[in-house]
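Below: protein 1.
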Amino acid sequence: MPAKYDSIGIGYNRTRQADPYLTDRLYALLDPVEKNHYLDVGCGTGNYTLALHQRSVQLTGVDPSEKMLQEARNKSNAIEWISGQVENLPFEDRTFDGAIATLTMHHWQDIEQGLKEICRVLKKDSRLVLFTSTPTQMKGYWLNHYFPVMMETSTRQMPALELVTSGLENNGFTIMEMERYFVKEDLKDLFLQSGKHNPMLYFTTEVRSGISSFAALSNREEVTKGLDRLAQDIETGHVKKVIEEYDSDEGDYLFIVAGT
């Protein structure tokens, strides 16, 4: 699994920046207390860890990829960056006062075990803030029109909302809140659906390299053909109709807040 993370990331820090709006929402939903200690699960190169740290949130970042952790360490030595899998977190029981996990659950090997481990390392009355997508939401991405095999694979990898909610409830959490997120035109974190309003983003190799669906779950032939078709539809204006056909009120991503 770490090798998969290591294969994602040419220019990752330039294309996967902490988005100000998403940082605001993570902060508000986590509702951190000064001097308390929080965990960023699947921190990657630490973009959101650092963004919250700059708001005086004390965080430890954990990730299975040493390559990404090294990038995080290069950004800040004021944050503790730890190598580890969510299914076997290298921390004592009741270590943290809360946790975040942003766009990482689809990489976990075992959702139930991962949530059990997070609950174990959280103190009583802590919050866990998950930022993820659901298969239902992903079916509303217009990318399905141009990259159907890649999107089918990506959607299949994404844990269903029912799996996440039952996993939370089975492992000591109470679901407190859910908040749908619709991709905004000024999004700075260029993840899969980031080009919702700007299809031209996907023609940039660096952007695709920072998206796991393109970097690890696609084949070159489909991507090439899909981009050619997308270019033609942009030129003719047909892409607007395609985007409209995939418009959905389900949201593009989802915040889930759960308490211990």
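Below: protein 2.
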Amino acid sequence: MTHAKDLYGWQWLIDAAELTRFTVEALRAAGAGRREAEVTAQVLVAADLGGVESHGVARLRRYVEGLHSGSINRHAVPEIVADNGSVCVLDAQNGLGQPALCTAVDLAADRARQFGTSAVMVRRSNHMGIAGWFAERAARAGTLAMVSTNAVPQVAPMGTNEPMFGTNPFCYAVPTPQGTLCFDGATSTVSRGKLEQLDRLGEPMLTGWALGPDGRPTTGVPETVQGLIHRKGYALLPLGGGDKDHGGHKGSALSLFIELLCGPLAGAQWSRHTYQGGEGGLGHFVFCLSLEALGDPDIIRAGVGQLAHEVRDGNPVDPEAPVRIPGDRRHRLSEQRNAEGIPVLESVVADLDAIAEFIGVTPVSAMTCDI
């Protein structure tokens, strides 16, 4: 393997195709079907390509172990359990979240082309990775897309220190002449995955991101990560933090909205109940609006592209930092890493090696290049 030194410390460079190969083989060896393994690998590697390492192959172990143990259904086939034309509900049957949500996105885009708009809910699912991958898939099909999911309880609504919501990301994507404009972000101040990444890097977090069991702000990364995983009274804060003066009530309300869409309205569990009974109970939500229903899609795309250009062309506060719109950094990194390789932390590579040994597949290998 070849070391790569960058801002995050010592890392390996791994070719995207090689990382995808390994991920597919590991999932297949654990019992996943070929399509399910390939979709899941695409989502995980896309996260690493785009610099969202918190949701990349560092999460592979949970899927492999879940499939191997049977806590994730290896034979799940998403089933439509309610079909009202433009509104559908899918049962993921406790399978991998990525292929279930991919099925929902493709269904939503197809129904939006028929009816103008569509909404598809998913129930009995598992973790699905980065929402942006799915929203951009629907955007490339000619729709404005919104994608959300709930998660295990980690976020304390404003006014309490008790975790009741997931980090509940909200994502949208719309096509432009140059590609897709896509925002994907948690409705908490920070995701647990980001804290796990900081923990691997040995870096600190900011005050105002999390609360300890005593209800007071904490900045201890390792104990917060473990406290969230094992539900020992730690909690993340909603967007805006824990008080109204900084907009915490807005972040709390947004998180509740996602919980409603992906929990009760989807016939799924909400955060504190998501894994009761030993199987996945997560819910996902997809909304698609066909551009053709609004007029000439090319004119709409051109308008979106012009708006994006005007925002980027705004006067920067810092002349050394150009104005960006959602997705700019991720797209730039994806191009760079597709060409040069994906930097992966030593601790993550060690985990991938352990997965290879556990499941009996060829370990991942690095690019042979000098940087």
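The chain is about 40% helix and 20% strand.
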